[in-house]
Amino acid sequence: LLGPSGSGKSTLLRMVGGFETPTSGSIRIDGEEVIHLPPEKRPTGMVFQSHALWTHMNVFNNLAFGLKLRRLPARDIRDKVEAVLELVGLGGYGKRLTTQLSGGQQQRVALARSLVLEPKILLLDEPFASLDQHLRERLREEVRDIQQRLKITTLFVTHGQDEALALADRIVVMRDGKTNRPRART
Asked: Distance from the CA of 62 to the CA of which of 47, 70, 138, 184 falls in 20 to 30 A?
């Protein structure tokens, strides 16, 4: 989702994730209406711009939290957390506090926390906005690689055309809460 600040990109993403309620229309995932479902019951994983990590928990517990809510056995939780940490390049970081991580590592933890729940749709709300250009480009490539390896549908919000072109299979341009549809050529 590409567009200027205030165009409705994040609002649309938050509606898909269940954090805001649309005033009309429907939201379907795999053909099933999800508007009535709270965020934790939707088959989505959200990565916020601010990382939204719990600083009083170590990396492992940040990732395990959602799995514990689902009442998975401890061994399954451990296996899933370790696997997703390897996937995002943070194998062995489970005991570290999130405050001991760099910005890029924190962003990887936020991504891993969403992926460990095995969502059908990954929602990314300008996840690299607070990072420097070099790190932003590197993480962008890593996210694209992970997305393709997992074959997971991803909605990525950005106001950067370069970022959209580097990541997207399809680009939706938004302005004033609406999509700008290209006109057919005659």
From this structure: 138
Half-sphere exposure (Cβ direction) of 117: Cα atoms closer than 13 Å: 28
State pLDDT tens for residues 36-70. 999 888 999 998 877 678 889 999 999 999 899 88
What 3-state DSSP class applies to 151?
Answer: coil
* 102: exposed, middle or buried (Cβ count in 10 Å: 0-12, 13-18, 19+): exposed
Which residues share a beta bridge with 2? 158, 173
Gap between the Cα atoms of 4 and 113, Å rounded: 28
Which among 98, 100, 168, 104 has a CA at the least distance from the CA of 136? 104
CB contact at 8 A, 45 and 59: no
Q: What does pTM read for this prediction?
A: 0.84
